[in-house]
């Protein structure tokens, strides 16, 4: 009986992983808005990537944006920009991770 449980656990884990991959939603953006570089960040020469989790409605509208990581001076500009993005329509609400790059001209 113990051997059956040991075998069953990895099989169940694999199945759950496979289901998660099948239901992963990677909708493409149809409209993006570039972030406005914050003046203080530009003056301080702050660059980097802000990672966000965007909650997307069925019609492609961004409902909510949560910050995953990024420099504090760049976060607000990235969130404001992503809230204006539009995605392809989908079957249900979804959450998609988005990376917004900030780079100064050199």
Map the helices and strands.
Blueprint: H1 2-22, E1 29-31, H2 39-43, E2 48-56, E3 62-69, H3 72-82, E4 86-87, E5 94-102
Antiparallel strand pairs: 1-4, 2-3, 2-5
Architecture overview:
The protein has 106 residues and is of the alpha+beta class. Helices cover 35% and strands 29% of the residues. The chain has three helices and five strands; from the N terminus they run H-E-H-E-E-H-E-E. The protein has helices at 2-22, 39-43, 72-82, and strands at 29-31, 48-56, 62-69, 86-87, 94-102. Residues 11-24 have low confidence and may be disordered.
Could you tell me the CATH topology label of the domain at 46-102.
Answer: Fusion Protein Consisting Of Minor Coat Protein, Glycine Rich Linker, Tola, And A His Tag, Chain: A, Domain 2
Broad CATH class of the domain at 46-102:
Alpha Beta
Helix content: 25-40%
> What is the CATH-assigned architecture of the domain at 46-102?
2-Layer Sandwich
Count of extended strands: 5
- Strand content is 25-35%
* Count of helical stretches: 3
Keywords:
single chain; 106 residues; alpha+beta; Fusion Protein Consisting Of Minor Coat Protein, Glycine Rich Linker, Tola, And A His Tag, Chain: A, Domain 2; two-stranded antiparallel ribbon; elongated
In short:
This protein has helices at 2-22, 39-43, 72-82, and strands spanning 29-31, 48-56, 62-69, 86-87, 94-102. By secondary structure, the chain is of the alpha+beta class.
